[in-house]
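User: I'll paste a sequence; please echo it back and then give the predicted structure.

Assistant: Echoing your sequence first, then the prediction.
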Amino acid sequence: MERTLVVFKPDAIQRGIVGEVLSRFEKVGLKIVGMKMVNPDEAHYYHHYETIGKMVSRRGEAQFKVQLGAMQEGPVIAMILEGVEAVGLVRKMVGATNTKEAAPGTIRGDFAHASLDHVNAHNVALPTVLHASGDPEEAAEELAHWFGDDEIFADYQTVHEYFTQPHPDRKKHG
């Protein structure tokens, strides 16, 4: 099973949409194995967005500073989701980072609408609702940064796991 990090950003918490978004992940069979509400400092976000995510090289120093400020506008909810190809599945569900390009039915397509052009012109952060790991390697680094081993609870089985893993009591189809 693969694990990925999802962070509900301050805009998601302030808008009161966490439960609605979280239920989407549960409904597709992803298992929550870690979750906490935290208010990280600038150093934590710097490590997350630049040391791991290389945001300055992708978006520039000005937008990086705006992002750091926006992430500190309130608490966030960090969680670990586990499942079959969890990183790719979550990225597909979340939608394009440029919310103007996010397809309807994705989380960003349904809950966010500002464009990169707009936020860059007004020097504000892009309200994207969530952060989701970009690939399995990034997920591993992010999970180690956000969670300790004692904060991960994977020792329970969901009904979805029953259907996606070999089970001795189930007949094989072939």
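Strands lie at 2-8, 31-38, 76-83, 130-132. The chain has one domain: 2-162.
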